[in-house]
Amino acid sequence: MADGEVGAYREFKALVEAADRKFARARDLPLYGGGDHHSRKAFKAYTRLWRLQQERRRELVAGGLRRWEIGEVASRIGQLYYARYLRTAEPRSLVGAYVFYEAIYSRGYFGAAAGAEGGSGSRHQALLIRYKELRFIARFLVVAMLMRRAEAVDHLAGRLRALVEETKAAYPKTNFKEWKQVLQELGRFLKADGAYKASRSLRYDNLFDSYPSNLASIARFHSKRVLKLKETVLTSYRRNEVKFTELTLDTFRMLQCLEWEPTGSYQMAGKELTENGTVSDQSGPSGLIDIHLSTEISDGSLPANPQKAVIYHPTVSHLLAVLATICEELSQDSILLIYISASGLEHNNAIQKYASTSSHATASAFPIDKTNSHTSSDNHLWLGPRGSGGPNNLYPEDLIPFTRYPLFLVIDSENSHAFKAIHNAEKGEPAALLLSPRISSAMPGVESTGHGSQFTYFLTAPMQAFCQLAGITSDIDTDTYANAENLLFSAFEEYEGILCTSVGLNNVWGQILPDPFLRRLILRFIFCRTVLFYFHPEEHEQHLPTCLPSLPESVSPAAEAIKTPILLLAENLVVSDRFHFRDSRHKKK
User: Fold this and answer.
1) Looking at the Swiss-Prot or TrEMBL record, what is one Pfam family this protein matches (predicted)?
2) Which of 30-34, 45-49, 256-260, 371-375 reaches the highest mean pLDDT?
3) Which of these, 25, 107, 409, 536, has the minimum number of CB atoms within 10 Å of its CB?
4) CA–CA dist 561, 557 (Å, integer)
């Protein structure tokens, strides 16, 4: 080896160590409340590294540079892009993570090294690289799922399973229990997320989620105070919940629901070029990854996505600290959305029993949930692992100090009713509350726990939630599903028109209806409440979601204009016999 080659590799290693230190600082910072300068420093360090390996790669290869080392650098850049996406909700950053991960995967940066044979030292090194590869594929899977790349997700999931099996066979004395659990979580997640293949994106799509006929009705609210959704806090904490890595199914759905669907196409290319511009073979340890992102991805006609703090299994003190930090930075025309999906039971082992109930001449079965009798209180949410104790209890009173700022609160829990205490107890700004039913609903014999929280499902994917509730488990005919989507579009258009022209609409709702994300959540709440109202043969308050302040009677389940679209939808899907549209026992709400 020439001195220049050794010197180049030493310089590379020194830069790697410096970049890794900056990466660690950026990684350890919370994804809210500033800290962007650490991320920028880390990006700058890895950009310098990337440029060095491009400009002097022949010297570096001769000096001992290995493919997995380039893969590690590219993986770190992908992680920084993903962290920036979580911090800013910027689509371009998510695409950047996907581009780098796809390039690493397609070139097999980790694969060759992990499969190397040799003595005990080299085998140990190969095992460490294999762990890097497993973690990389898990990260790539999360990004691919958020990008809705179904084919890539299926392929990566298969590769991850195969890789775990290969590694277990190659290293029989190594414990892979953790990765076995990861595969189980992945299987449950993909089964729930892909239950209805024909479904469209959860993101806000102007083509499907906006209704030009109602623009004039919405515009009238602009004459008064209008609040915009700019900040959100999303968290869930349930035992045995559907999740993959640190992304739970509930927050995964809500995260997408609060983003715009990009109108442009993703133009991505990973090209490995030599100095004269020709495409090189990819047998060398490195190459150039070019990112070509369509300018349409940042469509000027679309506002920025609301920033989101996605918190995985927080303690109560951590959650409150996050809320305090974000509220301090909330602008005067902004509203903060707080979404919490959590159990109200400290052991969360509700037992579901089904009881048959007669409706006219037809016998139908409906679920009656009985919660664990040892629970001592139903006035809080439980944010904690197994065990008991006050520090893990989140009470409505804990959130009241934050009502000095405008809040839109979504609580998905069997103890959601406890948070009614916030209404009329606010410290400055009246809060808008959407509270889940105390008891989830399902057809008898239909497994529902693996689909995530039902209320969240309705708020983020109402068509799929309706199918799951009605027991439609098999693949639906494409035309039938498309007709159902059109009926749902018409239903929401009508609901929006009625709501925006209702007399006596509380100003708490009026000042947030112009915001498209919040308006869509409210319309889906109306849909959810109506569907559940007619699903049960008798009026059970515990089976229905609640909103505070109350919405006008014109959008109540008993209103004919609200009921009729649900009937048409049920008839289209041939499940009208599973509802009670003509049951005289329903009282007007």
Assistant:
1) SCAI
2) 256-260
3) 25
4) 9
